[in-house]
Design a protein that fits this description.
The chain has a single domain, classed as SCP2 sterol-binding domain (Nonspecific Lipid-transfer Protein, Chain A, 2-Layer Sandwich), CATH 3.30.1050.10. With about 110 residues, it is an alpha+beta fold. It is built from 4 helices and 5 strands, in the order H-E-E-E-E-H-H-E-H. The longest helix has 9 residues. The protein is about 25% helix and about 20% strand.
Length: about 110
């Protein structure tokens, strides 16, 4: 099992594919550190309290995306990711590609 307990690892991803900032709404009922709105730019991410939400996800799905368990398209199909603004779809697919890993569960 795996679970992000902080957002620093997301800042290390290559967000240079973004042509405009996006706002992610991450829900985590257990940790305030990983719950709330994130503004993501090509330079990284920061917490924010306002903004038009481009995509919504829960921390379990975000962990799976980060690890490469599945890509955003699969996450949407499994109802763990809701992309509100289609203009961010390709960028998210580039940042979160599916990779071969051996992880079958999350919490």
């Amino acid at each position: 099992m795996a679970r992000l307990t902080g957002l620093d690892p997301l800042g290390e991803l290559d967000w240079s594919v973004l042509d405009h900032p996006i706002t992610l709404d991450v829900s985590d009922p257990l940790l305030d550190a990983t719950d709330g709105l994130l503004r993501v730019t090509e330079d990284g991410l920061e917490r924010t309290t306002a903004g038009t939400i481009d995509a919504e996800t829960d921390i379990g799905t975000l962990t799976q995306l980060y690890l490469g368990r599945f890509d955003p398209s699969t996450a949407e199909h499994l109802d763990g990711l809701d992309i509100e603004d289609n203009s961010v779809r390709d960028a998210l697919a580039t940042v979160f590609p599916e990779r071969p890993i051996c992880l079958r569960e999350f919490f």
